[in-house]
Structure formats: C-alpha cells, structure tokens
Amino acid sequence: MSLHELSRRAFLGSTAQGLGLAALGHLAAADGVRRRPHFAPRVRRVVWLMQTGGPSHVDLFDPKPVLAAREGEELPKEIRGDQRLTTMTAGQKSLALLPARHPFRKWGESGTEISTLLPHIGSIADRVCLVRSMHTEAVNHAPAMTLLLTGHQLPGRPAFGAWTSYGLGSDNEDLPAYVALTSRDRENSCGQLLYDHYWGSGFLPSRLQGVKLHGQGDPVPFLRNPDGIAHEARGEMLVDLARMNRMHEEIVDDPEIASRIAQYELAHRMQTSVPEAVAFGEEPDHVLSMYGPDVHRRGSFAQNCLLARRLLERGVRFVQLMHAGWDQHNNLKTQLAIQCRDTDQPSAALVLDLAQRGLLDDTLVIWGGEFGRTPFCQGSTKNRRYGRDHHGNAYSIWLAGGGVHAGSVFGASDDFGYNPVDRSGNVIRPTKHDPHPDAVHAHDLQATVLHLLGFDHTRLTFRHRGRDFRLTDVHGRVVDGLLA
Amino acid sequence: MLARFATLVLVATPSVAQRESVEYGRDVRPILAAKCFQCHGPDAAQRKAELRLDRREAALAAGVFGDDDEASPLVERLFHGDPDERMPPRESGIEMTDAERDTLRRWVAQGAPYEAHWAFSPPARVDPPGTRDAAHPIDAFTFARMREHGLEPSPAASRRTLIRRASLDLTGLPPTLDEVDAFLADTRPGAFERVVDRLLQSPRFGEHMVMPWLDAARYADSNGYQHDADRYAWPWRDWMIRSLNANRPLDQMVVAMLAGDLLEEPTQDDLVATAFNRHHAINQEGGAIPQEVRFNYVVDRANVAATVFLGLTMGCAQCHDHKYDPISQREYYEFFAYFDNVEENGHAGPSRHNRYHQFTVAKPFVELANEEQKRDLAAARTAAKEAKGGYDKVAGAIGKAEAAWMSSVDVAALETSAPRIASAVLKRRGTPLTGPERRMVRAFYVGEVAGNEDWRQRYDAHRAAQERLAILHETVPLVMVMRDRKGARRETRVHTRGAYDAAAGEPLTPGIPAALGTLPDDAPANRLGLARWIVDSDNPLFARVMVNRMWQAIFGRGLVATAADFGATGRPPSHPRLLDWLATRFVESGFDQKALYRLLVTSATYRQSARISPKHREVDPDGVWLSRSSRHRLSSAVLRDQALFVAGMLDGAMFGPPVYPYHPEGLWADVSFEVFAYPHGRDGDQHRRSLYGFWRRTVAPPNMFDSANRLDCVVEPVRTNSPLHALTMLNETGFVEAARGVATRAMRFDGSTRERAAQVLRWTLAREPREQELELLVSVLVRERDRYAKDRAATRALVEVGRIAPPKDIEFVDLAAWTVVAQLVLNLDEVLCRP
C-alpha cells in the first residue's frame, strides 16, 4: 500500500465515523468550516507586486507640469494645509517644488500618461487601471506597509493573503496557498526590512501564514531531507510511520491521527512540488527573455516575477512579491532610473505572460507601494544628493487583470500631486473616517480586492479577543470605478 | 475551532426550547451581545433610536417590553412581517435565527429579567456538590457536569501514561526510565502525589511554566520595526523563572510586574520585574513621530495589562465606547493614564555594539552590574578608548593602502589561499561591503598583507579591546524598566477616535472602569494603586482569569475557552461553579501557584485515560465536559526539548543571555537583506532548552512552529497541523541530530536489535512496546541497514549531520539505520501528543 493510499484510507475511514473531515486541517478552512464566497468571484488569484519604500508618483505616474513651471518655489501653504511631515523634513525651512526629471508620454489607445522611465509598463497601458488618488494616513514604512497589508498600522493582524486563504482555502494541495517572495535593489540603497508579519497570519491559525520562498538556501525551511536520506527512502519510512500511527489510532481512536498522517504525506509531496515550481530550467528562451536579463539572477525581482507566474499557474492563491529600494530621500537623481530599469520590464512581462496563458482573466495584478513621495525636494538640488520625502495624501498604484477597468485612470491629484481632488477638481482631504468616493484609501483597496475575490469585506470576519476582526478594520468601501 | 465548539454547544446543551425557562446570562445575553448591542449597547456614539438594551432600567424606560408578551414592541420588531421593519435590520448584515428570536420572546414573556454579567460579579462561595464517587473536590464538580450531559468519567490512565503526562505538563520534559520504574515500584498510597511533588520542586517547572508568560508578555530579544536591534530582555525571563520555582505568591509577582518601581525601597529584582511593561516593540525608524510612537507604547501596555490580568478586551475602547462590555472610551483613557506617566519620550537609544549585533534600548532602563562588573566595564571602556586612539592615528593610512591593494591584488591567486577574502575583494569592485566583511578584510590586510608591525600591533590592540568590551556588554545588560516622571504627572485626555494627535477634553485621573468596582479611597493614583486593586479580592476578574490560564496550561483548554476575553462576547465558563471555587480557593491560599497545580493534577479528572469513545465522539468531540483526558499536540518548544532529552543531549544550563540553536543558513541574511547574520559559531548553544533560544521579532525562529508571534500579547495556545511542521520535525538539523543521539543511545544499550528497539520506545513513550510495533521497527532497521550498507556516501552524510561528530566506536551503517528508526519514533503521533 502506498503512502497516499494509506492516508486516504485513514482519512475516509474516520470521515465515515463522522469526524475527521473537520480535523483535516489543510483541506478545510481555519476553523473546520470551509467558507464560500459571498458572491461570484471575478478573480481566483492575486499577485501583488509590492514596491516597498514609496515609489514617486510625481516622477512616474502622475505628471505635474506645474512643478516644472514653478520649480524651486515653495509649496503653497493652502495645499499643504495642516498635513504632518515626517521628522526628516519637518525641520526643513524650505519646501521647494521639484519637477520630474524624466518626461512623461501618452501610451496606447487609452493615452494614459506614464513616465518614459517605464516604457514596458507604458506599453501595457491599455490593460492597466491606474489609480491616482490612493491615500494613507501612515507616514513611515513599517506602519504604512502593515496598514496596507494587514489593515492596521501596528503588527499583529493577519495579512491580506492569510485572509484570502481563510476565505477560499487552497487550489493546490501540494503547495501553500499564500506565498511571499522578496528582492531588493542591487545597490542596497535602502534600509527597509521586510518583516514576516507582512505575510503573517496574525490571530488566524498559523497554517494560513504566507510561506516565504527564500532567495538563498532552501526555498522553504527544512524542505530538503537531511544529507544521506533520499526521497524514496523517506517515503518508505513515512509509510511505516503511518502504519505505526494507525496501530495507535486503534487504541485511542483519535480522528486527529488521520489528519497527522495526511499532513506528513503532504509534506512529502511538497518536497517535490515546491522545487518543481521554483525550477524553471524548461522555460523557453522567448519567455525568459520577456522578463529581461535579470531573470537569470537568483533572488532578483525579474526572477521572482517569473516565479510568481509559475506559482499562480499551479494554483497558489496569493503571491506577494516585495521589492525594496524605492525610498529615494537623497538619491532620486541616480537611483530612480536604476530602480525603474530593474522593475519595469519584469512587471509588464508578468502581465503579458499571464495574458498569453489565459490566466490574466481571473488573476488580479496589483503594482504599488505603501505611499508616494513629496512634490517638494528633500535636501537641496544644489547638492549632488537630494530626493523626496514620504508622502501618503495622494499617490499612485495600478491594477491589471480580471474584473478591472482596463485602459483607465481613476481619481486625480491637485496640480502639485499633493492632495486628491474630486471629479470637479476641488481639493479634498479624505481620511479613513471621512472617505471620499473619488479617492482610494488602503482600506478601500482591500475592500475592492476582496470584492473581486467574491467577498463582502464586512462579512469576512474572525473572532479574536472578543471581537469580530476583518481586514478592513471598521472602514473601507468597494470602489466601483476600478471595476470593469 | 470556534465554529466546531459552537456546533458542539448546540449539540451538547439541551436546546432552550426543551428547558423550563430561559436565563439571561446563559441564553439571552449572548444573543443580545452578538446581535443587538452594536447599535443598542454601551457605545453612546453608535446607539440607534436612543435605545440601549444592555441595562434593564434603560430598556424599561424605553418601553420595549410592553405590558405582556404580545404587546412588547421588542418582540413585535423581532417578528415583524415587513422585512424592512424586522430587527436586526437587513443592511446590518447580522443574521438572527428563529430559535434565537424565540429565546428572546420567551425571555420577554418571563418579564425580561436581567443578571449582571457573570465575570463582573465576585466569584460565588460555593461548596463542591455531593457526588457519590468523587473523593477529590474537583471531581465532584466535573463528574456532576459530565452526568448532566449523559457522560461518565473515563477509567484512569495507566501509571506509565500518567507519569509521562504529568512530567510533560509540569516540567515540559518526559520522565527518565528510572523515574518511571520508581513510580511503578512505589506501592504505598500516595505514589502519584509524590511524583507530582517531585515535579513541582524541579527547576524545570519554572522553565516550563514561564513559556505562556513569555507569549503573554510579547517577550522577544529584539526591538522589532525597521531596525530590529537587539535588546536585553532576558533578566526579566530569569526573574520569572526564579519566582515561579520559588513559588512566590502570584499576587506579589503581579504587583512587582506592574509597579515594582513604585514599591518602597524597590530591590533590583522589583525593577527588573517591571520589564513586563517594556517588552513591546521599539520603533527606531527614521522619521517616526515620537509623540505617535510613545502613544502606541502606552496603548500597548494598557491593552496587554487588560488582557493578561483582567481577561478584558479593553483595547476596543481606544477609539469608541466598548460595544459589548461596560467600558466607556473615557474609562479606557483613565486606565491608559496609569501607563502614560513613564519617563520616556518616544525616542530610542542609547545603543551598544557587540560582535554580532547592535543593542538598542529606550529610556528608562537600569544597568544590571555587580560591583566587579562595574569596575571591569570602566576599565574596559578606558582601555578601548586608548586602543582606539592609537589605532585611529594610522587608520587613514591603512585605509588608503588597503584600497590600493584591493584594486590591484590578483584575485585568482587569493582564491586558493584565502577564498573568503577573494570573494569580498571581488564583491567590493561592484558593491560596498557590509560591516563584518570590511572587518574581515581589514584583519586580513593588516595581519597578512601589509607587513607593517606598528599597524598590526595597533590594530590587534584595538580589536582585542573591542572584543573585551563586547563580551562585557553582552553579560551586563541594560534592562528597560518602568519609571514614572518626577514632578507633575503627564496630562492624559481622551483621544478622539483613538488617534495619538487628537487628545481632547479635560485631563483625566487614572482609574478603573466603574463596572469592575471602585478603588479604595487611599489608593495612590499610580500603577501601584492599580496593581493593588488588580490583585485585591474585590476584583471579580483577576483570580478567575489566572486560575483559568493555569487550568488551560494543565488541561489544554480553559474552563473559559476564550482565556483572553471574559467579557460579554467571550465564551461563558463550561464549569462556572468550579471556576469560582478554584478562584476563591486560590485567593485563600495566598495565591499559592504550586498548591493549585497540585490540586489540579491530583484529581481523578486529570488522571483519566485519553481514549475517545463513540459516546465522546457523539456528545463531546472537543472534550469540554472533561470525561476524558486531552490528547493535544505538544508545543514545538516541548517537542524539541523532548527530542534532545530522549537523545541524552539536553544541556540543562539555566538562565542568562539568549543562545543560538541550529538555524537554516542564510535565513536572517535573506530576510534582513544581510543586515543580520546568525551567530552559528557558538558551541553548546544548540542543546539548551528552547526557551533560551534567541527570538528576533522580524524573523521568528523557524523551528518554533505555532508559537505566539511575540508581537502582540497571546494567552491562548495555538495548535495547528501543517505540512511545514512535519518538514521541521523530519529535516531540521537539531531534530536529525537528536535522532542520531537516540540511535547512539540505542546502540550503546546492551541487547539484541529487538531489545534495543523496545528500549527506544520506552525512552520516548515511558511505556512497554507492543509486539506488532517491535516487528515493524526491526523490519525498518533491517531494510535501512541494507540500504546504507550499499551506500557508504549516504551513510557518512547522515551520521555527520549537525555539529557533533559521530562516535568513533560505532559502526556507521548501523548508526545511520538506527537514526532512521529513531526519526520514525520521534515523529510518532503518540510522541507528538500529550498522552
């Protein structure tokens, strides 16, 4: 009897006795009840190309001719309002306007304006829904990222992908449902760490936490057998282990034992399925070349993009790809172009690759970071090193894929890229407490993505410490304007 | 789990319709709390139609109950034919079942009687019920409750099972064979009680019982956030272990944790105890706004204290009045005010460096050094300064020469003599080196290349002095403690919507929520006043919350299943009278923790077999009614310690700075982009008990699966079942090495293959093997021996896993084959679970 048959019998055997199914942790959802979507989902899977550090919207996605016309002038007081600054620029006497150094152009039939620093993303503009009125109240990396990914600025709550697996379970029994991949710019210019709570399960069962595939060593900790134990030999030992566990089951009659056997069996299958998913030796050259030359460099953003496609293809529900290096406080002049070069082609390639496989229709691609950057200069352009500070009032992200309004731009910011404006062009100052339909808060994005996955964000809840928690805290609205 | 439990309650409890009458606390309040209080409860801001249903007077005044059943507007709205009129409103998304509606109808028909929420009334003084066959007071309660649900107690477990269970529950380690044999041979009455007394006296007791405290206190060895620098947390951990082992009364421990600094003439230990409130993450992020950072710390302390000592979800009231429990937002900030007066400003620092990491603490802190250490430190600092001065004179010249050498040296030649230097030199031609890499190159350059004796001496003196200081810095900790500001207290106000920068209204006086009682008139308005009230017998919550967690530590689940929430939305206790009896007894005993544990484990309830009968499956699949013992999986920390113990490899050293057990190569570096490097190099570290392992907040130890995240307070155990756990148990270096340790022990045992296999099962399970099991293990051994006899390379590879060299006097083929057998045994479900 093979290991698989053995545990299958164990599983069916105990199911017949009325328990067991609920005990089979991996197959069922968190609490033994498999949840169903609240309505028909538009997408089955999500890949978030998280650009950490805060990509500069005024340099890349949101052209502001006024900044060029008024270069060096002070940011008008009425635009800034009572906005708090980080302590890095709060003490700076002058907030001099700084224009984008690289030109924008119109792309595709939609004519969406995007920087020429991002020609590949520009070339897929007709597939993209560009949001120019994203906003967040967080002013620093870790709180802003934690808010965007877990719905709260302080660590401890489940990340987006954990909620997704909690709601939808897994599409592939041999791979984790939620995977995180990380990379950084080659210059190592930034100090942002990527914490494991960014893909953590918070108070949800730890089984739902994202599995980070590592860029060095084993892709999953302890995936490899110890030296001296071959895969087949391990398989034989596991059959014996299951037999001996069954002997004990006859005595204590605990249905959890069947579940234990099943998990050991899955572990054994993962030992081949995970390396298979991350080894792309058989990818044809024309596909590899879509992602650019960096695809051959272990742990690069380009390689992670290709990996993301392979994982999505194999039924991974949520891939969170995090690329650090956008925090250009003082190296905007030199580093922005490099950062764009490293991310532009692979990002666009992933969208096109998913499309050519027919996967884009039910996959959502999100590209963006925790906030944008200030339209004014941090430091001085008289020096070699200058840049822009963090800015969360208004910034840009883009979406592509299933259910998304392709070839469109949603929302706008004022002439300085500082605040969102409403449809009539009036400056608005929305907050999570006081949202505006023309602006998209982190919670609104979360609500909208859950909506695409088939969930009412107010009803996907988990009781913890006496309260029904949800990803969107007590906020969030579905933004219809982003939807096809 | 919750949903399973919910189903079970419906199955296990006779439905309300079958009962004579409905009871407010048991039947009605849970419905109102879950489905009505959101709009008609304590939160004034969210209240609709000015109606509140959580207070009888208010509901009566609103006239919702009418004159009789039929005329009640409340019942009318619950059963209204028009869906737009029916409560709860459709748009709320809250669904109420017909049975729940009927319960409320019947309650109104009974005259809508209210009861105070059970947890806010003092524990009742009750006597154990008279139960015919219960000799132990706990059994009197549990047997009666079992029989209400048609269950009978299970037979007692065997002595072998019992000693393994009690040893794991009380010390986190299995018994030795000698201990098992002694117990079996002890035929006098009270043999098990003597085992229990021995376990309670073991120093391992405190090491095991501190684990849930570390989770509750969000204890970690690093600061979290962007920098995640190291901190000195361990003196508090050691204080806890010593206090638990000394059986210090729990009320004293809690007063010290909350307010040791405010005691009269506090000792150094009293100060260290207050680190409990400083284990929150510390934000050093550039640009962080200090006022916001400090506000978050205070919120963290208030919420954690409420969860840990009161079982309350007080944090809900940070932004608005609590929706379910009687805690207003103003009362939240009165409680918050106790923790708001600390001498701190939201900035981090000072920092210290040692060989591996940067330590950063935040004020206030104390330096824990004895007189000798103080002298040593002063001397080492002077010496380090002098040596650095000497080195600085030549450092510039060395730097220039070194740079010239690096750009000209023949890397190919260097490859053979010094490969690590060669790769660093290569790397530098493209990207900057990390700090450790720069130091490595500098040491090589000055020592091997430059040929300048003056440089070498100055450099060596500098490094040696730094090293000496680093060692002292690691053993002389700066412990973050609580210390209030001198002079006027910081003004605390309500923060609108819980925002740090939205303080509004009048300054508040520290205080407790009115629903929990009143402070004595002479109580100081500081943490000491709070601490004394928390442990006072007038507080309805503290003793219950504590005995519930102690029960949970022994039985696997609390009498209140939601150990973190004793409020309206928590689970009511499965055995309310038992909980109250234990709580009052605990108080009367002077908060004697060991006496309470002894009471729990000497009950017949504790000694039952874990076998699951068809009746259990039908009536009580989760074991709520305690008619069998729990078979839950052991924690990952216990599993690791157990494996090391059975292998005879556990290093029993106690206390001190954290240690660095086996860790996947490159994991820290990968996650932190090479900011952190795991210090693999220290011998001996890898066999200390799990609790001493270094805990980095941004990269939790990967072999400690299902542990609390140590970011937030966790008081309920997490037990999931994932393939990643199986991979850890099977492949992690420490577990493989432990299997080889078991194999070595087996081979040193004088006996046949069969007898050796039997011995391995005795060591791990404390029981006699069964015939079938021995046959299987022997067949595995034979097969594996054949396999390894044909594959010398695989043999060698397996016996060399880990840092400990394999014994020379043992045949490696046999050792490899036995290692596989031992792996099988260490992964048996029976080994992974509490027996």
| Mean pLDDT across every amino acid position of chain B | 89
- Tally of strands of chain B: 6
How many distinct folded domains of chain A? Answer: 2
Low-confidence stretches of chain B: 1-18
CATH homologous superfamily of the largest domain in chain A, by name?
Alkaline Phosphatase, subunit A
Q: What's the end-to-end separation of chain B, in Å?
A: 21 Å
Shape of chain A: globular
Describe the protein:
The complex is a heterodimer of chains A (484) and B (835). Chain A contains 13 helices and 19 strands. Chain A is α/β, with parallel strands linked by helices and 484 residues long. Chain A has 2 domains: 1-34 and 231-285, no CATH class; 41-216 and 298-482, Alkaline Phosphatase, subunit A (3-Layer(aba) Sandwich), CATH 3.40.720.10. In chain A, strand 2 and strand 3 form a beta hairpin. Chain A is globular, with a radius of gyration of 24 Å. Mean pLDDT of chain A is 86; it is low at 1-34. Chain B has 4 domains: 19-115, no CATH class; 208-349 and 485-539, no CATH class; 369-476, no CATH class; 636-835, no CATH class. Helices cover 50% and strands 2% of the residues of chain B. The model of chain B is unreliable at 1-18 (pLDDT under 50). The chains are: A alpha/beta (484), B mainly alpha (835). At the A-B interface, strand 6, helix 8 and helix 9 of A face helix 1, helix 15, helix 29, helix 30 and helix 33 of B.
